[in-house]
Amino acid sequence: xxxxxxxxxxxxxxxxxxxxxxxxxxxxxxxxxxxxxxxxxxxxxxxxxxxxxxxxxxxxxxxxxxxxxxxxxxxxxxxxxxxxxxxxxxxxxxxxxxxxxxxxxxxxxxxxxxxxxxxxxxxxxxxxxxxxxxxxxxxxxxxxxxxxxxxxxxxxxxxxxxxxxxxxxxxxxxxxxxxxxxxxxxxxxxxxxxxxxxxxxxxxxxxxxxxxxxxxxxxxxxxxxxxxxxxxxxxxxxxxxxxxxxxxxxxxxxxxxxxxxxxxxxxxxxxxxxxxxxxxxxxxxxxxxxxxxxxxxxxxxxxxxxxxxxxxxxxxxxxxxxxxxxxxxxxxxxxxxxxxxxxxxxxxxxxxxxxxxxxxxxxxxxxxxxxxxxxxxxxxxxxxxxxxxxxxxxxxxxxxxxxxxxxxxxxxxxxxxxxxxxxxxxxxxxxxxxxxxxxxxxxxxxxxxxxxxxxxxxxxxxxxxxxxxxxxxxxxxxxxxxxxxxxxxx
Amino acid sequence: xxxxxxxxxxxxxxxxxxxxxxxxxxxxxxxxxxxxxxxxxxxxxxxxxxxxxxxxxxxxxxxxxxxxxxxxxxxxxxxxxxxxxxxxxxxxxxxxxxxxxxxxxxxxxxxxxxxxxxxxxxxxxxxxxxxxxxxxxxxxxxxxxxxxxxxxxxxxxxxxxxxxxxxxxxxxxxxxxxxxxxxxxxxxxxxxxxxxxxxxxxxxxxxxxxxxxxxxxxxxxxxxxxxxxxxxxxxxxxxxxxxxxxxxxxxxxxxxxxxxxxxxxxxxxxxxxxxxxxxxxxxxxxxxxxxxxxxxxxxxxxxxxxxxxxxxxxxxxxxxxxxxxxxxxxxxxxxxxxxxxxxxxxxxxxxxxxxxxxxxxxxxxxxxxxxxxxxxxxxxxxxxxxxxxxxxxxxxxxxxxxxxxxxxxxxxxxxxxxxxxxxxxxxxxxxxxxxxxxxxxxxxxxxxxxxxxxxxxxxxxxxxxxxxxxxxxxxxxxxxxxxxxxxxxxxxxxxxxxxxxxxxxxxxxxxxxxxxxxxxxxxxxxxxxxxxxxxxxxxxxxxxxxxxxxxxxxxxxxxxxxxxxxxxxxxxxxxxxxxxxxxxxxxxxxxxxxxxxxxxxxxxxxxxxxxxxxxxxxxxxxxxxxxxxxxxxxxxxxxxxxxxxxxxxxxxxxxxxxxxxxxxxxxxxxxxxxx
Lengths: 490, 675
Hints:
- The complex is a heterodimer of chains A (490) and B (675).
- Chain A is 75% helix and 3% strand.
- Chain A has 490 residues and is mainly alpha-helical.
- The chains are: A mainly alpha (490), B mainly alpha (675).
- At the A-B interface, helix 8, helix 14, helix 16, helix 19 and helix 20 of A face strand 1, helix 5, helix 6 and helix 26 of B.
């Protein structure tokens, strides 16, 4: 059997290392091509994960397991189920788009930039595919490094502050997670995540481990109130960094809740679901209002991301099929939509070197094609039916109303807030008369940019019009997950 | 072709045309843009007639096209429900859309965004058709939001105008507030009925009538009351009911063809259609029906009154639309769903006619919309005048025009109903008859009669017109100089033919349709009325054919009130033309109150838009920056402070370390000795 998961992890990493051999300035062109081919290969090897995926079983698929550090029972153990498989594919696709997006905009240290993204991609795939706690932890921490470098080297003016903040914030949480892993190992004698799922734990222990996991994953999501690193990181990160950060790394946090917290700590999850729901609602409403008044497009989209991720954590902690599938499809959709949002901001940034809303106005006059794309993605961000953004919000809102009428009402305010901050930004940036000579001089999207945005537009519409194949992929695993949450470990 | 294929073709052909023209419109010749889209809508129209005849033959259809998602046991699908209610909507939507497409060829002739405009209105037609053909709540919500999107795009069509992009955002937001209630209502439906398919939900509705839920924590509420009120909030947004009506007058910033199609004839009636479709749910909640009645009645009268003081010709018609939507809502509230649908249909014809007529006037006056600059146009634009007169008479409810029949049914239903609040509704719709007649003929007299004020008027055009000249190209490039002499002339045939074609049903639709629709069993099973609520059934006892209804109606107070309205308008705007200004001065504050839409807009801007921004600012600056960031950066600062405190210990000088060691040794020895 072909080790597709290993390929998904190591093809981009090997390509990244190869690109690092081309660091001389005159090799920049070569570095771009090697990186693109590497990313393309990395994406192609993930396609069988979708086409050969068996949607009738919740068991791990494409499993690989070999000894890694036998002394501690640590295995190189990979596998995906319906919950993780889509994110491996999404990540490889986004990496491809990001490499292509940085084609012209990145002019200094091209090879290092491309390599950072390729390495990042491999680490992220590893995080989604790892079934061994330590392997997961290694990938989980490893991915901080390329992102730290991406923000710190190719970022904006305040990049060092943002990079350090990003690094420390996420590291803090993950150390507590490591402690929890070691505790679980001592209890179970195994680092296999699936063994931990079977391990009986007292409620008190579960709650302590919940706190440790929460520290790691809530920061990543990010959930209120540990979210403030994100709005600082985004405006400083280069376009590609923002895209990967929003589209994929945030998903790791939510994935962590689905993979670790719910099945390993079912009783604590049920016990603390009220807290999770409240925090998620704060994310939706409070952060939605904060997004409204942002003056910087990237900050606005960053807050919008937090708000959208609130739907993910909310949907997961209703413990209902509708909610959980809504949460997972929302993760997928947010991966596409936030990537697209940051890409179009990047298109403008490449031309104007600013992402302040006030510097724009009337972009539709000089860039009608971009205006059309931005309209589509804005509508997806606002959750309009027919776009992917709708599917998750729809399901989570329906689940919320079923859970409790008033929680449903609060969740549904996203319809108003999401539209308000997204379309108000659209009005100020894209609509209107030409605001200044620099806007007048803008040239519309290039062929490369057109296809970048067009690919995402097609996917956004596909998921919106026909989400069934994607939901079918996750369905059996979700049922299994909910069964695990419902089963007490006490 | 099988019927199923025809059903599919009805929405998909316009969608395809919209995509083609939208993507390649710039490369296609202008004529191609209008031919492709107009033909597509014509095909839909013909197909709708075929479907209508098929439904009349007794064939209905309820089936899925494809499964959108399976969520556990819940099936979410895209599918069609074809019954008399749908068939009627199909005819109305495709017919008005076709008229508007033809009209647009003339109206937008010189606009730069020609292809874009056709793409949008064709996309609108698709969305609206999906909405009315749906057999489930998912697709209903899709169509619901999609028409809102196209409305947003079209109100902001001239996106350089600050007023247009203010209006379109406002429209979308108001609609979203409605949709917020709507989606909660759908959530309740799914939670308690376990399905979002109409047929399944409606089948379970009688059993659910007794179900209560605990909403407030005090007393249990009927599930269906809560659900229906939530759903109706959606209708309030889309169909511009008080207090979510604020977006509709502003939506007149959009080009006139869409005011006719979207903001008069079809989209704004989606809420009416939805409630009629949901009649099996609403019937089981008298409370919800009473809410519907009162809200509709309030709009019918009080929003109509606002139309009496407007000077912008399109705004008069817009307020009239708000008022007429109120009439339809009253009909829904008193369980006269068939009456509401009947009025929806006649209104679609005559209101589209009035808007398109107003557009024709606007073209003739080079995009001046101020009625104070009009007058005496009757002899220059005879076709526009006569067709608009027909539309006006229909709107006022003058027999035997279409509006007379449909409006009289509503007024009588409100009178004879037993729903709480029906007396208030009856008073509102009755007085509304006077108001309607007054503002309608005020419009007619100011526009077509009296002195030719356009010759002397300084064409102080709306300031945004200047912004438009570039955006929209020549059509609006009218160079308003003081010397500018306007010689109004009748509009080209593409404009007048739709007027004539809309005038025909404005005359006949009422006479022909009242029998089967209001008092017959045209709607059959598609509308459900409890026997206890069946006010139309009671009225049916006195139904002896359209002619008798007509004679009877001419003795009713509504007819005389309408005549009084026309007479008052004639006195004020033909005879004693100085009086209105004097009255306005005398009324002072009240006049300003009306002119400013009861200050609702100002309140909304201050309270909601301003309030949310203020709260957002508070959360951002205090919550995020001070408190959370304070803790985050504070903890970093605390560690740095600890470091600074301890730093002197690591000075790097050997004698410091040696001294420390000696002290340490000394201390240890001391401790060891005295222990």
